[in-house]
Every structure is written in structure tokens, then in C-alpha cells.
């Protein structure tokens, strides 16, 4: 039996149509440009996407190429990049926005560094201050020994005292308070006042306890005898 139909136009098997390929990618892979969306009511070729009423599509297979909304090549681009490609903004505008972002981040990082360095210095002074506070009584004993003549130059005791004082100074602790200094209630504690015709302003006449400062912090105020104008 012949496989041709009575008209002699091929097999009796139903013809298979080629599938229709619809490319929904937002970026044209050949030109690199952003495709403009089709009119809301027009749909795609051959009617709307879900329309099966068209008899011409009854035996057609619909194949989508690429994602319709997200993913693919366009997912790698930001909205600003897509605006540039679509012509809604210029490259200069995008560059200005990127520069402003960079300047803002740079300023934030600079402020962060300043805060970190300031906090580090404050923490360092606190730790060193806690350490040297325990050594201040030892320094007081050295001062008393020196006043009584127990720190004779060249003696072993004097050598040890000099090393200890040098170590304290390297940590940033400085001593203050000497006779003849102007009296300052912010850093001096007056334990006694004596009138004197030799001074015209309040002046430190004698130091009972030496004061110590660590950087801008007063670790201990100096206790002094104050000479006041008679």
C-alpha cells in the first residue's frame, strides 16, 4: 500500500510544526541594548502568551529563551547600569554617582580611623595610669629619702632610684610641683597658707607630695604649701 495520500502530497502521518522560540531576555545578546517592553495589550507573536484559542498554535511547541524578569546577563547589572544602556541616564551621570559614593565611603573610613586612634590613645593612658598608680608610693619614698640625704650620688640606692624614675618617665608619667611655681588650684592642693611679703601672687612655697601627670590626665595633684601676699 502506498504511503502517499490520494493527492500524492506525502505521508498520511500528521505534519509536525517547528517550535516557536520566544526570546524574553531583556538584553539583546547581539547588540547589547536593552529591549523595550512590548505594548501591554499586544502580547507576543501569535497572541498573548497563555492564549491557546488560536488554531494556528494548536500543534506548536512554545520554547522560552532566557528568563523573563530576572537572572541571566541582566542580573549582573545594576539598575543604574541598565538605565545607561537604555538611554535614561548618561555615563557622566553614572560616573558622578559612583564618585559621590566613593567620597562618602572614604570620609566614613577616615572618621572611623580618627575615632579608633583617639580611643586607642585613651585606652593606653588608662592602662598605663593604672600601672603607675601602684608605683607612686615608691616614688614618694624616694623623694623622702632624697630630702633626708639617703640618696648619695654614686650609691647603689641612688642608681636604683634613677633607673626607676627613668622607666616611669618613658611610660609618659611626668612629675610636677616645685617651690616658686605659681599656685594653680586645678593641679595643686593647698594644705597650708602662709603670708609672705616676698610674693605678689599665690606661689608654691614648699611641696609636700609631688604631683604626677600622664599626658593630659592628672594622675595625682601636688600637695603644696602656698605663700600668699602679706
Draw up the topology in text:
Layout: E1 20-23, E2 62-65, H1 79-86, H2 91-133, H3 136-147, H4 156-170, E3 173-176, E4 188-196, E5 203-209, E6 211-214, E7 217-220, E8 222-229
Parallel strand pairs: 1-2, 4-8
Antiparallel strand pairs: 3-6, 5-8, 6-7
Shape: elongated
Q: What class, by secondary structure content?
A: alpha/beta
Mean pLDDT: 75
Helix content, binned percent: 25-40%
Strand order of the largest sheet: 3-6-7
Cα distance, first to last residue? 146 Å
How many whole angstroms does the radius of gyration measure? Answer: 45 Å
Strand-residue proportion: 15-25%
Low-confidence stretches: 40-71
Give the ordered list of helices and strands.
EEHHHHEEEEEE
Question: Total number of helical segments?
Answer: 4
Description:
This protein has 230 residues and is α/β, with parallel strands linked by helices. The chain has three domains: 20-89, no CATH class; 134-171, no CATH class; 173-230, Nucleotide Exchange Factor Grpe, Chain A, domain 2 (Roll). The chain is 34% helix and 19% strand. The chain has four helices and eight strands; from the N terminus they run ββααααββββββ. It has a three-stranded antiparallel beta sheet with strand order 3-6-7. The chain has a three-stranded mixed beta sheet with strand order 4-8-5, with no helix packed on it. The protein is elongated and about 115 Å long.
Amino acid at each position: 500500500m502506498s504511503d502517499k495520500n490520494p493527492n500524492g502530497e506525502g505521508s498520511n502521518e500528521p505534519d509536525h510544526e517547528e517550535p516557536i522560540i520566544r526570546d524574553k531576555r531583556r538584553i539583546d545578546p547581539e547588540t547589547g541594548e536593552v529591549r523595550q517592553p512590548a505594548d501591554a495589550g499586544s502580547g507576543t507573536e501569535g497572541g498573548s502568551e497563555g492564549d491557546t484559542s488560536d488554531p494556528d498554535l494548536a500543534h506548536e511547541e512554545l520554547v522560552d529563551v532566557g528568563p523573563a524578569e530576572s537572572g541571566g546577563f541582566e542580573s549582573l547589572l545594576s539598575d543604574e547600569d541598565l538605565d545607561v544602556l537604555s538611554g535614561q541616564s548618561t555615563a557622566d551621570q553614572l560616573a558622578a554617582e559612583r564618585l559621590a559614593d566613593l567620597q562618602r565611603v572614604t570620609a566614613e573610613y577616615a572618621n572611623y580611623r580618627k575615632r579608633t586612634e583617639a580611643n586607642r590613645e585613651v585606652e593606653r593612658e588608662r592602662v598605663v595610669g593604672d600601672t603607675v598608680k601602684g608605683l607612686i608610693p615608691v616614688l614618694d619614698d624616694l623623694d623622702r629619702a632624697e630630702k633626708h640625704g639617703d640618696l648619695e650620688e654614686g650609691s647603689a640606692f641612688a642608681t636604683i632610684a634613677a633607673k626607676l624614675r627613668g622607666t616611669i618617665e618613658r611610660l609618659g608619667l611626668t612629675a610636677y610641683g616645685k617651690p616658686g611655681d605659681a599656685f594653680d588650684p586645678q593641679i595643686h592642693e593647698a594644705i597650708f597658707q602662709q603670708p609672705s611679703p616676698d610674693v605678689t601672687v599665690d606661689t608654691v612655697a614648699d611641696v609636700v607630695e609631688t604631683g604626677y601627670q600622664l599626658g593630659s590626665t592628672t594622675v595625682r595633684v601636688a600637695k603644696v604649701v602656698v605663700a600668699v601676699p602679706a
